[in-house]
Amino acid sequence: MAEKQRAPDPENRAPQDGEEESDSNEETRYTSADDIDRTRLELVRSLTRQTRPELARLASAFTQREEPPTEGIQRRDTLAGLQLGDDVLNPSSPQFDFHKWARMLIKLMETEGIKRRRTGLTFKNLTVTGTGAALQLQSTVSAPFMAPFRPRETFGIGKKTEKKILRDFNGTLKEGEMLIVLGRPGSGCSTFLRSISGNMYGLSKAKDSVIHYNGVPQEKFKKELRGEAIYSGEDEKHFPHLTVGQTLEFAAAAKTPSARVMGMARHEFSQHLTKVVMTVFGLTHTYNTKVGDEYIRGVSGGERKRVSIAELGLTGAPVCCWDNSTRGLDSSSALEFCRALRVASNVFGTTQALAAYQASQAMYDVFDKVIVLYEGRQIYYGPTGAARKYFEDMGWACPPRQITGDFVTSVTNPLERQAKPGFESRVPRTAREFEQYWHQSEQFKYMQAEIEQSEKDHPIGGPALEDLREAHQQAQAKHVRPKSPYTITIPMQLRLCTKRGVQLLWNDKASTISRVCSQVVMSLIVASLFFNTPQLTTSFFAKGSVLFFAILLNALLAITEINK
Q1: Could you give the number of structural domains in the chain?
Q2: Angle 244-254/266-280 helices, nearest 10 degrees?
Q3: 464: enclosing H helix or E strand
Q4: Beta bridge partners of residue 179, listed in sequence order
Q5: How many Å apart are CA 163 and CA 154, to the nearest integer?
Q6: Strand 203-205, strand 163-173: pairing
Q7: Taking a C-beta distance cutoff of 8 angstroms, is the pair 225, 464 a contact?
Q8: Based on the domain organization, do 301 and 178 belong to the same domain?
Q9: Pairwise CA distance, residues 32 & 29, whole Å
Q10: pLDDT tens digits, residue range 163-203?
Q11: Phi then psi for 496, rounded to 5 degrees?
Q12: Phi and psi, residue 286, nearest 5°
């Protein structure tokens, strides 16, 4: 057999036919390389087209929360070996761990017999109506012109216009559970949070609506334990001239309990809590910075939002409702806020409810339950992990890589939702149809069974009220009326408010000095008008005029304090 002829090495081959042959070989080689590159590119494009749906499905699946395996894992006490002076328990140290600090605090409270305030909540047949100027609708074009002929309606005399905001809501939250409220603006998220927290100004419940906290009716809860359920609105209301540290120390001092761990002094305890929340929410560097507002320079908008969150977090309330509190925060700060709520729920047993119009997948996975609202109607309530499947089984298609929060919210938007092929005529379209589908679902039956079990464990008029009373009275200072919603006495409150007033004057020295100088100048001007007034009865009215000007000028100068 003839031997195979070895291909000559391109680098060592002898040139043939001069330089032209070499150029021809180079051109052939580059042409073959281009063909190979084009073949590879076509192959990659073909594989991408074929595997794109599968890759999208896998990417979406990886974003879902996965429960870590618990079999074979031995529980270990993470507080073993920790001392009270360790850096992980010191809020001023970079090694501070909020989870371990909270667990150590609970351990000390249990050792010293300090009771914790914990409660869940249940709402049944919750229907809420609202009245007010915002609901005065112009029905026809001629309505404004006919208004003078309808004085009772125009001036609010008699029955006012009512509008149903929430319709037949049901659900329950156990101690330590977290609920995320999803819905488009105007769907009733804020009203729902205000209702379950007892902040019902301008709102009214239907007669058959029931809200109770582990068996304690809301009316009795608001009367005796008003500060145990708080509501945080979207807007921040602060004294702009106070520093962040002064603002938070005032909130901590007003809620400092009488029973404190390790016999700490009241001032020391409030300062320690202030440092903890400032470390958790990244506000340590703003301790001496003014809060500020639109006109006064201070902290940034995101930091001001975190000040509001930290201020309410210092109350230690067992039921907390946050109305779009992540607005103005970056994604990292919003996630840290939700994780801080998760730690508080797991360790202290607080019940949290948060309304968020934009929630990342990581934020969404922090919560236990989700409620979806559509034009004031409840269309889903249940575990966060089952919400996507519920709406997909309904017939709605989830686009690739879309997070769960955006998907369930987009279902309520006719311009964004997409039905699966073949489900175009079978999926619900209106809010009423979504509600009817929800009432007929298995998830609704599961929720009803959960409510029944909760009411069985915590019946109306059960021992929960006495437990909350004991914990609340244990936190109250001496000489405070047992049924008072306040933690400290009235003299303590006056002392705190006086201290804050002095801080306001000191931090706004320019305004204070200008007011004093203007008073001095005006007093000299007015006094010059009545200089050398005789000490006779004929000057009686002149002296009365001096008093009139003195009172009038001070009254008018007080108008400048309104915006503050």
Answers
A1: 2
A2: 130
A3: helix 464-475
A4: 353, 369
A5: 17
A6: unpaired
A7: no
A8: yes
A9: 5
A10: 889 999 999 999 999 999 999 988 999 999 999 998 888 88
A11: -65, -45
A12: -105, 15
Mark 115-154 as b/e (b = at least 16 C-beta within 10 Å).
bbbbbbbbbbebbbbbbeeeeeeeeeeeeeeeeeeeeebe
Residue with tokens 């506000």: 283
Distances in Å between the Cα of 283 and the Cα atoms of 248, 334, 381, 504 are 11, 14, 35, 21
How high is the pLDDT of residue 36?
56
Q: Are 291 and 239 in contact (CB under 8 A)?
A: yes
CATH for 263:
3.40.50.300
Quickly tell me which residue has 């602060």 as its tokens.
Answer: 238
Is there a domain that residue 101 lies in? no
Tell me the pLDDT tens digit for each residue of 310-362.
998 898 889 999 998 888 888 888 898 999 899 889 888 899 999 998 889 99
Q: Are residues 262 and 386 in the same domain?
A: yes
The total of other beta-carbon atoms located within 10 Å of residue 45's CB is 10
What amino acid is encoded at 437 in this protein?
A: Y
> Which long-range CB contacts under 8 A does 465-469 form with residues at least 24 apart?
465/215, 465/216, 465/220, 467/115, 468/117, 468/119, 468/213, 468/216, 468/225, 468/228, 469/224, 469/225
523 pLDDT exceeds 90?
no
Residues 373 and 521 occupy one common structural domain = no
pLDDT tens profile 395-424: 989 888 889 999 999 999 988 888 888 888
Whether 442 maps to a domain, the answer reads yes
Reduced 3-state DSSP string for 4-73: CCCCCCCCCCCCCCHHHHHHHHHHHHHHHHHHHHHHHHHHHHHHHHHHHHHHHHHHHHHHCCCCCCCCCC
What would the two tokens of residue 268 be? 């020391």
Q: How many CA atoms lie within 13 A of 167 on its CB side?
A: 16
Sequence-distant (6+) residues with CB within 8 A of 356 are 180, 181, 182, 324, 326, 363, 405
pLDDT at 474: 87
Element (H, E) at 125: strand 121-130
Query: d(Cα 307, Cα 283) in Å, to the nearest integer?
Result: 8
Q: How does residue 69 score in pLDDT terms, banded at 50, 70 and 90?
A: very low
Average pLDDT of the chain, as a whole number: 81
For 549, the domain range is 508-561
Radius of gyration of the chain from its Cα atoms, rounded to whole angstroms: 34
Domain end marker among 475, 491, 522: 475
d(CA 344, CA 370): 18
| Beta strands, E only, 347-466 | 351-355, 369-374, 377-383
Tens digit of pLDDT for each residue in 254-306?
Answer: 999 888 888 889 999 999 999 999 998 888 999 999 998 888 899 988 888 88
Do 243 and 380 sit in the same domain of this protein?
yes
Query: In Å, how far are 206, 256, 258 from 474, measured between CA atoms?
Result: 35, 11, 7
